[in-house]
Design brief:
The protein is α+β, with helices and mostly antiparallel strands. The chain is built from 21 helices and 39 strands. α6 packs across α7 (about 255-265) and α8 runs antiparallel to α9. The longest helix is centred in the last third of the chain and has 19 residues, at about 780-800. It is found in: Cytoplasm.
């Protein structure tokens, strides 16, 4: 919210610069985004008066204006505004002036006619277009008739005011108003605040209750009050009110609508005004019916459902309660009788509706954070009195009460000792009491004990900790003593699970993969991909977008999104991994899903760039399988790692996918993404793996120990064989390792041949076997015996032909 410094000073005596005040607010209350003065950067923009005007001889829309700027001679300016008139005071940028966007105005010729300046619209001197009143949207702005010619325009338009932009946290809804901010500043600076709550003059000979009745669902509207003001004159509001609205970022509309917005800024209480003569029957506050529609004030049609809140007449909705009004009942120049609404709507229901329809307004922001339930009727009276003063309306003498919430003030018991203990202070009971009373709290002190009654405008204070925080911030955080905590000195470290997760990252990064972090929220379709087991999905009730509706049940789809993002930007070689949690539920009735640690990777293109001595080679199944295998071996799993082909994953290539087992325990899968899925993600051939990291964490690990390098030499023997094509390498290696004896330390496949001189149903494989005795010199007889045993068992098991 943008707070006017000059407006604040009407209620509290402030004699410090605006930037210092903003720093104090940030240190004590809420964050401050910026402090700006709209006139900063502008120069030589003055009040001018059009004294003569004639049409441009070479244009059908330009005018040659003689403008009096308080100097000896008028300034000639060529202007194309359709509303330029003789006798009007206008915003005049002289030659050499700086206007919006630091644009410099220079003398120039416009179609052959000299122009020595510019007549400006509001947006041309820096106001956003969306706050410029409709009547001035397509032309220059007319200044007040009593403006002094030649004066800077800034003071007439409120541009010399400093605007403090507060970033109000959800718990401090009271700061979304001038009154709330003044209350806080009065406590911070220990100065009295001067509030001006107008008393209403009831001048109408009619009653509100005779003109309209209300039927209110109190579950929706905790408080709902109406008052009628008859015989109003709808016209532009006074300039002072317009200035305060557009400086706060609100577009002035007319005096009635502006009164509601002004009251909201001043008191923090949203209001709405209806054209009473446009209403059909009485007013009701209810849930919408499925399929009902409303055209809102921003001219958008919204389809409602039974969870939405509406204010309605007999013909249907006239407002989305607490969010935005409807076009059909809006205030226009023809309005004569106004029905003011001042209410408190359920903050949770308002927030849900605003988020669902993506309609976030100044009103919904305040209702969501909470408004003062004890000030509603006073605000309604103040707005009614303003309608009498600036719209010449007649105020009815009664208030129509549809519902009224009697709020109870929070009462908190606390001791001064407790406050001092938490803050590390030695404040006296009198000092603490003074702080609470400056905040407007009622305090009853009995020795060290205090009973504090909280005003209803401070709905954020409920417990002792809240009171202690109030003492700290008003006393000043900078004034609190600095002390080091007293604690037991212990050596910090990671537990086994944390260490394994950290090691996993280091290992994969060492193998050439880059750490990626994806959203835990995704679409329903992507959440169900690459599943390693059955699980019900977890949907968000009110997702922020259609791409983030469901908690993920895999990591792979997020990595594929990352690869697609890179490919769209011409990055074809990508190798990523992600460590994170997936969310599984046994069935849809479970509310809270289980969070399971996973580790996944995705690779496309080549790990190595093309170079003079090494050509690039695209990733294949064996490369990503090797990375997974290296990772599993490096973390020291105590058990055999095996891979079993699996064709059951619908998102994976059926001939290039394998399940991963460690000592018989299923831990994940590795393989190629199905070409159809790759096409769906708009990516090239991609290989992925997904590991259940929690299962890996729970599996037993080998103890790390140092093993001496043997001083005895090793012996290598090769064996080549013809074997049936359908026999897998893994099966052969298992037989060799089983029958190779105690001295066999390594088996490697170094050749695979299929083609000429090899039958079609056969393949030629060659293995290198390494033998070593770590305690003595190995003799040839031992190796020969082992090789004969290996050969004999291979012939028996697979009917191989040794070559």
């Amino acid at each position: 919210m943008k707070i006017s410094y000059n407006w604040l000073k009407e209620y509290i005596d402030l004699d410090i610069p605006a930037d210092e005040l903003a720093e104090k607010i940030e240190r004590s209350s809420v964050e401050v985004d910026s402090v700006i003065k709209p006139s900063d950067g502008l120069k030589k923009i003055v009040v001018g008066k059009i004294v003569e005007m004639e049409n441009h001889p070479d244009s059908d829309h330009l005018h040659i204006c003689q403008v009096d700027v308080g100097e000896d001679e008028p300034v000639q300016i060529v202007c194309g505004a359709p509303n330029a008139q003789v006798g009007k005071n206008v915003i005049t940028a002289l030659s050499g002036a700086r206007v919006a966007d630091n644009m410099k105005i220079k003398k120039s010729k416009m179609r052959g006619v000299q122009s020595n300046g510019m007549l400006c619209a509001l947006d041309e001197i820096g106001y956003p277009k969306d706050v410029v009143p409709k009547e001035w949207a397509d032309g220059i702005y007319f200044l007040p008739e009593d403006a002094t010619l030649g004066d800077d325009v800034y003071k007439y338009l409120g541009m010399d005011d400093a605007l403090i932009d507060l970033d109000v946290t959800p718990n401090r809804g009271d700061m979304l108003s001038i009154y709330g901010t003044v209350h806080d500043l009065a406590a911070i600076y220990n100065k009295p605040a001067k509030f001006d709550l107008d008393k209403v003059s009831e001048t109408s000979d009619k009653l509100t209750s005779d003109q309209v009745q209300s039927d209110v669902n109190e579950e929706i509207a905790w408080t709902y009050l109406n008052r009628v003001v008859n015989d109003v004159e709808v016209k532009p509001s006074p300039l002072w009110m317009q200035v305060r609205l557009w400086n706060a970022g609100i577009k002035p509309v007319n005096n009635i609508v502006d009164i509601t917005n002004y009251s909201m800024l001043k008191f923090g209480q949203p209001m709405h005004a209806y054209d009473l003569d446009k209403l059909s029957g009485n007013v009701s506050v209810r849930y919408a019916n499925d399929g009902e529609k409303i055209t809102t004030l921003d001219e958008n049609e919204v389809e409602l459902d039974s969870n939405d809140l509406v204010v309605a007449d007999d013909n249907g909705p006239i407002a989305m309660a607490g969010v935005i009004g409807g076009m059909d009942s809006s205030i226009t120049a023809d309005t004569k009788n106004v029905l003011f609404e001042c209410a408190i709507f359920d903050p949770i229901k308002v927030r849900k509706m605003a988020r669902k329809h993506v309609i976030h307004t100044e009103a919904s922001q305040r209702f969501e954070r909470g408004v003062d339930p004890m000030a509603v009727e006073d605000v309604l009276s103040s707005a009614s009195e303003m309608a009498r003063e600036i719209a010449n309306g007649s105020v009815t003498s009664d208030v129509l009460v549809g519902s009224k919430y009697e709020a109870k003030k929070a009462v908190i018991e606390i001791s001064v000792t407790r406050i001092n203990h938490v803050l590390g202070m030695e404040l006296s009971a009198a000092e603490v009491t003074d702080i609470f009373e400056r905040l407007g709290f009622e305090v009853k002190a009995t020795g060290d004990d205090l009973v504090v009654t909280i005003p209803t405008r401070r709905g954020d204070i409920h417990i002792q900790a809240d009171l202690i925080e109030e003492v700290a911030r008003i006393y000043g955080y900078d004034n609190l003593p600095s002390t080091l905590p007293t604690t037991t000195m212990t050596t910090g470290g990671l537990n086994a699970e944390q260490q394994l997760i950290r090691d996993s990252r280091h290992i994969l990064e060492g193998l050439g993969l880059t750490h990626a972090i994806s959203y835990a929220l995704t679409t329903e379709e992507k959440a169900k991909m690459f599943m390693m087991g059955e699980s019900a999905q977890t949907d968000l009730s009110y997702p922020m977008s259609s791409d983030h509706t469901t908690l993920r049940m895999n990591l792979v789809s997020g990595l594929l999104d990352d690869i697609a993002y890179n490919k769209a930007r011409k990055v074809d070689n990508v190798a990523l991994y992600e460590q994170g949690r997936v969310f599984h539920k046994e069935n849809a009735d479970v509310v809270k899903p289980d969070e399971i640690e996973h580790l996944a990777g995705a690779m496309t293109g080549s790990l190595v760039d093309n170079s003079w001595n090494q050509p690039a080679k695209n990733v294949d199944f064996f490369q990503i399988k090797g990375i997974v295998n290296e990772y599993l071996e490096t973390i020291g799993l105590n058990g055999e790692i095996s891979y079993v082909a699996n064709e059951s994953y619908p998102e994976m290539h059926p001939g290039r996918t394998a399940d991963i087992f460690v000592h018989g325990h299923y831990v994940g899968f590795v393989g190629q993404v199905h070409p159809k899925i790759a096409k769906q993600f708009k990516i090239n051939e991609t290989y992925v793996f997904d590991l259940n990291l929690q299962t890996i964490i729970d599996l037993p690990k080998k103890e790390q120990s140092y093993e001496l390098v043997s001083k005895y030499p090793s012996i290598k023997r090769d064996i080549a064989m013809l074997i049936d094509k359908d026999v897998e390498n893994d099966s052969i290696v298992k037989v060799i390792e089983k029958r190779g004896g105690a001295y066999l330390v390594d088996v490697k496949l170094f050749d695979l041949y299929e083609g000429e001189h090899v039958p079609e149903d056969k393949k030629s494989l060659a293995y290198s076997l390494t033998f070593q005795n770590k305690h003595d010199t190995l003799v040839d007889d031992d190796v020969n015996n082992a090789m004969e045993k290996v050969q004999r068992n291979l012939e028996k098991e697979f009917n191989v032909e040794i070559r």
